[in-house]
């Protein structure tokens, strides 16, 4: 659990580095007083105080071809809100023209509905947002109703409002509510809620809502990743695999997910799959460069943890493969020892790896190495510590050694672990210093180039 939290907290910390602390609404839409907020489409506005508001699903506005999501009304006046999906990945120049184009395309069927268009589509602003407006009304003078539709676009969505009233003044007064309109990135706000909690149950609940609302958003892969790690915390193997494999599919170069998945497969006995994923994870780590916005020390820790987890998963897989094999599976056992040793080399406090090493050495009849490994597992003070102490005392008893010497053995191995940690910290500091030096040298080089460009030889004037 301690090791999982290190990776888990890394995922959290890298998220909040570029997220603000805003706290979004948890529901898709919400009405508080006369404030309507749509957390899926990402906008809010204050409709007229005292009007009746009804959230709606489906249906169409007068222009048709759209989905009605809200209708507010008072007497003969009403304001309806609708939306329509736009093609994904639409270029900005086409996106900007979509609102005007939509109104021009949809006004064609109005005469068949006993409606007449009044004027051309025109630009208008509400709040800080550009809308396109089309005015129309019922034909004939008797019981005439005036309409105006105003539409704007956000990435992937067209959002529109249709006002209806007995006269043009009433329509304009109804649309004045849009002066309060505000837009926000709904997917980003939903992600902030996920990034802002460490509780796996909350991550899973908020993540499911996010994926339902924004399944193709660029943030979705990171939601799958957070959910996979959360399901790992809850020991929910099936959902861990679902979201872990989805993360691998969408984030092929992610350095964290394959080691975690490899460990999950190894613990479940899917040994070949665990080995394959662990090896893939190591290949990704070897090819990956440090992100520019991540400190060197933090990057080294992250990389070493992932390398350690990958090797531990392989060691555990080979350990399980050796069980039940003819001759005790000595060859497999030795491979397990090799990978488990690599895991502790990358992470000197990996108690579970030391514990598994102790078991492997016991099966290989390497009593002294087993004692050493179990003592290190105890000294690491992790979740395997107590089990390791029991095994340590058991071996000492079998060898007829004084069990009271176990404390001294543990202290000696604690000193060994501390020395290894100090060496790694010194290595990280040296790499950080070297990185800073390279950065300074690069800045100096760029500055010299700029100076050389500024100092150009002056040619003689022909005049």
Features:
single chain; 463 residues; alpha+beta; Serine Threonine Protein Phosphatase 5, Tetratricopeptide repeat; Protein Transport Mog1p, Chain A; 2 domains; seven-stranded antiparallel beta sheet; four-stranded antiparallel beta sheet; 15 helices; disordered N terminus
Explain this structure to me?
This protein is of the alpha+beta class. The protein has 2 domains: 2-10 and 187-420, Serine Threonine Protein Phosphatase 5, Tetratricopeptide repeat (Alpha Horseshoe); 43-183, Protein Transport Mog1p, Chain A (3-Layer(aba) Sandwich), CATH 3.40.1000.10. 54% of the residues lie in helices and 16% in strands. The protein contains 15 helices and 11 strands. It has helices at 2-16, 92-106, 168-175, 186-195, 200-213, 220-233, 237-250, 257-267, 271-287, 296-322, 330-346, 351-363, 367-380, 385-398, 406-454, and strands at 29-32, 35-38, 43-46, 52-55, 67-74, 77-85, 115-126, 129-138, 146-154, 157-165, 182-183. The strands form 2 sheets. Strands 4-5-6-10-9-8-7 form a 7-stranded antiparallel beta sheet. Strands 1-2-3-11 form a 4-stranded antiparallel beta sheet, with no helix packed on it. The chain is elongated, with a radius of gyration of 32 Å.
């Amino acid at each position: 659990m301690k090791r999982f939290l290190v990776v888990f907290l890394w995922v959290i910390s890298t998220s909040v580095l570029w997220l603000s602390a805003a706290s979004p609404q948890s529901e898709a839409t919400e009405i508080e007083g006369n404030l309507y907020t749509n957390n899926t489409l990402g906008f809010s506005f204050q409709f007229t105080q005292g009007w009746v508001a009804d959230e709606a699903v489906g249906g169409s506005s007068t222009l048709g071809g759209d989905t009605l999501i809200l209708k507010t009304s008072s007497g003969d006046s009403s304001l309806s809100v609708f939306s329509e999906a736009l093609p994904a990945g639409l270029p900005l120049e086409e996106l900007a023209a979509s609102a005007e184009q939509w109104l021009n395309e949809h006004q064609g069927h109005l005469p068949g509905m006993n409606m007449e268009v009044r004027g051309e589509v025109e630009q208008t602003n509400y709040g800080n947002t550009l809308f396109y407006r089309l005015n129309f009304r019922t034909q004939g003078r008797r019981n005439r109703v005036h309409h105006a539709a105003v539409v704007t676009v956000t990435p992937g969505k067209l959002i529109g409002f249709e006002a209806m009233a007995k006269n043009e003044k009433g329509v304009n007064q109804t649309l004045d509510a849009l002066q309060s309109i505000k837009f926000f990135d709904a997917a980003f706000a939903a992600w902030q809620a996920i990034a802002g909690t460490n509780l796996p149950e909350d991550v899973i609940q908020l993540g499911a809502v996010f994926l339902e609302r924004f399944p193709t958003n660029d943030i979705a892969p990171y939601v799958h990743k957070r959910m996979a790690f959360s399901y790992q915390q809850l020991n929910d193997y099936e959902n861990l695999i679902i979201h872990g494999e989805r993360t691998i599919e969408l984030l092929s170069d992610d350095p964290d997910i394959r080691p975690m998945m490899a460990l999950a497969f190894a613990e479940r006995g899917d040994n070949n799959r665990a080995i394959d994923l662990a090896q893939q994870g190591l290949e990704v780590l070897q090819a990956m460069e440090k992100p520019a916005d991540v400190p060197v020390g933090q990057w080294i820790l992250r990389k070493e943890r992932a390398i350690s987890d990958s090797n531990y998963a392989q060691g555990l897989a080979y350990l399980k493969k050796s069980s039940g094999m003819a001759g005790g599976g000595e060859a497999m056992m030795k491979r397990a020892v090799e990978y488990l040793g690599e895991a502790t080399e990358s992470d000197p406090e990996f108690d579970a790896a030391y514990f598994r090493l102790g078991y492997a050495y016991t099966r290989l009849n390497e009593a002294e190495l087993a004692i050493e490994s179990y003592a290190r597992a105890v000294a690491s003070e992790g979740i395997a510590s107590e089990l390791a102490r029991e095994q340590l005392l058991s071996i000492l008893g079998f060898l007829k050694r004084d069990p009271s010497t176990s404390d001294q053995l543990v202290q000696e191995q604690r000193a060994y672990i501390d020395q290894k940690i100090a060496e790694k910290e010194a290595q990280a500091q040296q790499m950080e210093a070297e990185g800073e030096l390279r950065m300074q040298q690069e800045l100096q080089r760029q500055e010299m180039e700029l100076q050389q460009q500024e100092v150009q030889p002056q040619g003689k004037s022909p005049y």
